[in-house]
Give the backbone structure.
Amino acid sequence: MRIFTFDLPTDENVIIVNASIQGKYKFRLALDTAATHTTIDSNVLYFSGYDLKNSKGEFEIETANGIILVERYDLEQLECLGICKLNFEVQVYDFLTHGITSDYDGVVGLNFLKEHKFCIDILKKELSVDI
């Protein structure tokens, strides 16, 4: 089991975790236990060396703010919270084009965590993950 500490520095009281693509392109994700899929900003994908023309297609998803269109891509390697997923599918959305600015570059959803036991202890500000 690995334990990660966090603070709640944003106005939204969001738990922010570090992530990387191929172990070298580092970015930050919000932990979203209500999200079924992991979603990242298209700029992260682009700056990680992915060609944005190579999506698996466009899909409609329902968010708290309504239905949006996302693209889906397979990442060679996504690492977050000590978990490393190979050939992992993510949803990609252009945050800036849609007026979204935040302290993070997307959300890590339940599809990333579904094979692991994890616990959020808000009082201790700790997140434990069985790897």
Remarks:
- Residues 55 and 96 are 19 Å apart (CA to CA).
- The radius of gyration is 14 Å.
- The helical segments are 42-47, 110-113.
